[in-house]
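Lecture notes, unit on protein representations.

Consider one protein chain, 376 amino acids long.
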Amino acid sequence: MTRPPDPLTGPLAGARALVAGAVAIPSLSGEEAGVAAYLRAWMAARGFEAHVDGAGNAVGERGWGPLTVMLLGHIDTVPGDIPVRVEEDTLHGRGSVDAKGSLCAFVAAVAALPEEALAGARFVCVGATEEEAPSSRGARHVLGRYRPDLVLIGEPSGWTGLTLGYKGRLVVRVRVRKANFHTAGEGTSAADDLAEGWFRVRAWAAGEGGEGVFDTVQATLQDLWTRTDGLAQLAGGTFGLRLPPRLSPEAAEEAVRGVLADLPDPAGVEVTCTGHERAVRHPRDNALTRALRVAIRAQGGTPVFKVKTGTSDMNVVAREWPVPTVAYGPGDSALDHTPHEHLDLREYDRAVAVLTQALTRLAAGGASPTAAPAAP
């Protein structure tokens, strides 16, 4: 196992060593076994009931009170080799922000909870697998196994940020096949037809309108390819759609199939849709958001509510767990998936302190986690 980088200094050195060690272990989607074992061992050594479950999730539980708090983060990353190192108070490495920093902040905070908090609540930390893949395997695996009263999703929001919602998603793959012909002849190529399909999908998305980026349809051309064997032409592409709460992925799929139905040679057009995720937006005022706002202010910050244009495991769990839910974690989400991904460890320290105080407050009583259904 890779040793965590040094030096690690400061009042929360143990929490910092946890995140540095996790980031130092590569964990592409589907290859999370090493970091899951590391987290299980760390939690078990600090009083958690810890195990790796059937989906490869690292799971740790502390506390025995009547309130169940789910802290769900993910431990997989996208590709990209960023040398793991600590320079002054900055941890560089793939996954430092998205989203091992958030998951480790959860685990470190639960490890630091006083006895009275453990008597008031049961805290379940899940380091989930395959969040960066369309499968969301880890989150789906725990859905039917827990019935939490409150849910924290581990995603970078900045230590003062509280993320209430994420847009939905649809991934459209289009493949066009046509008989080969001389380019001096009349007609359209497979690449022409594919391009026409993309222009139509983009125009449909632009026509959906909406107030602000969270309420619009965003269309992105994710990849393109063409090839021929001398007898047939093939062209393919992937269109990524980010959907507002008012538009379900099923409705978006119907619309997209409609605009692609009359391409020049429809018999040779194949459309496949995957990655269906509904948008979600949770209420601002509940026991969970109040506890976090109080804790952020106690650390000298000003709470900020956010919604995001990407997706997360919040989209996956919202319908099955219709309870107060917030995504929270240290780091700048603009660094997600970039070659410059890094985490300010001073911000990480503040996030751990905020979580420790907020969870203690929730467990101490006065928290009435009345279920508040998420937006469809």
